[in-house]
Amino acid sequence: MGEERAQGQEPSELGIEVLPIAIANLRAELTEARDLARRLEGETPAQVNRLWCDQLAEEYHDAGAGQAAMAAQLEQWRRTHPDAVGLDELAELVAEVEPVRQALLRQLARLRSAE
Questions:
Q1: Full-prediction pTM beyond 0.90?
Q2: Which residues, 6+ apart, have CB-to-CB distance to 56 below 8 Å?
Q3: CA distance 30 to 36
Q4: How far from 89 is each of 33, 44, 93, CA to CA, in Å?
Q5: Residues 6+ apart with CB under 8 A from 112
Q6: Which residue in 74, 55, 66 sits closest to 14, CA to CA?
Q7: Which end of the chain is more exposed for a tag (fewer CB within 10 A), N or C?
């Protein structure tokens, strides 16, 4: 997959058999991002390492591209396997990701910009 991206091509579509893995991974990512956002909510700029915040901000900016790819994959699965068990759950998770990601990015921006 990395080789395809390096050549400027879109990654291959995932087979529907990875749907349970996609759900589990997205659920875990959401839990981690929510926990991190809650933790950062109570922090002050003096309490956090700016380099760590910079790294997290970069990571969660990059996660937006992965999120877009998952949303596109979901749409493809809906077309090719409309009755697959788990598509509705994945759609709900995909819809939950962006607001959580944005909240985390706002927290990080607050901590990074305060002097």
A1: no
A2: 36, 104, 108
A3: 10
A4: 18, 36, 6
A5: 45, 50, 53, 54, 57
A6: 74
A7: C
Coil, strand, or helix at residue 24?
helix
pLDDT (tens digit per residue) in 60-103: 988 888 889 999 999 999 999 999 999 999 999 999 999 999 99
Name the token pair of 59.
């990571």
**Alpha carbon distance 82, 87 (integer Å):** 8
pLDDT tens digit string along 11-66? 457 789 999 999 999 999 999 999 999 999 889 998 999 899 999 999 998 888 88
In the predicted model, is pLDDT for residue 114 greater than 50? Answer: yes
Which tokens go with 36?
Answer: 């991190």
